[in-house]
Design goal:
The chain is mainly α and 313 residues long. It has 2 domains: 4-187, no CATH class; 221-300, NusB-like (N-utilizing Substance Protein B Homolog, Chain A, Orthogonal Bundle), CATH 1.10.940. 67% of the residues lie in helices and 0% in strands. It has helices spanning 4-19, 26-66, 73-76, 86-92, 95-104, 112-123, 126-133, 139-154, 158-167, 175-187, 205-220, 222-230, 243-258, 264-278, 283-300. The longest helix is centred in the N-terminal third of the chain and has 41 residues, at 26-66.
Length: 313
Amino acid sequence: MISRRLLRIKVLHILYAYFNSNEEGLARYEKELFKSIEKSYDLYHLFFMLLIDVKEFAEQKIETAKKKRIPTREDLNPNLKFINNRVINQLISSNRLYKYIDEKKLSWVDNPELIKRVYNMMIESDSYQKYMNIDDDSFEHDKQFVITFFSEYLVNNDLLYQILEEKSIYWNDDIEFVLSMNIKTIQKTKKTAIDVNLFQLFKNDEDKEFVTKLFRMVILNHQENSQIIQEHIVNWDIDRIANLDLLVIEMAIVEITQFPSIPVKVSFNEYIELVKYYSTGRSNAFVNGVLDKIINQLKKEGKVQKAGRGLKE
């Protein structure tokens, strides 16, 4: 499932394109939004396939070593712990994974150098050596190593990032978020399962409704919310305020006023984190200060109505 934080990021990107384009058409940009979200889901499956491809590369290395003219004892009696990893073999047994990959025509076939690079990085790591040599043949140990694969060998992998940037413009900011989805999936695997239970694109209908409503309401309430913001930035140097900062505040206003089930504090913190990641060095203080004042005003005017246990203001 795509996390709410990544959904907010996707909405921010498409809204920024919408407000900075001379072309009209909410429907076209909404279609682009969902295409962007689906591309993240593609990447989720591709990361699993990369793990499988590295495993198959390891198998090929073992078979090649056995066919040496004068093979060593190690060549003839290789350590098979990695290629016998039960979690990886559950992934290989996943019809759903391969069906999605085939339908979307996703693969790393054009990137053999990446598979080799990840494999070499893996076998040279201390974590791999420990995994292969420790006297622990449990399912949990297999699971932990797969988690290590995603968190250690793929995060901040320059070649991987370069290839993904060339493959799709939608993946520039997705990698860490999507890898966290892969890790959460592996954490939920069970020894008794036949295959891995992959996440759905959306956790539930509520998430899909969230992203649709957030996108539409920011556009429909743009004039009104822009006016609210203008009233609270009189002491700031307007020429130095980034458009992205203003857009983040608009999104926050919509979420706080239009989504009764989301606590104000959650929305506030999410958009502060968003602006830390995407905007200028002074943006955090600006968005924090202005948004805090706007929230107080909205509460006084009765425009913040939260429903649900522990949410009523």
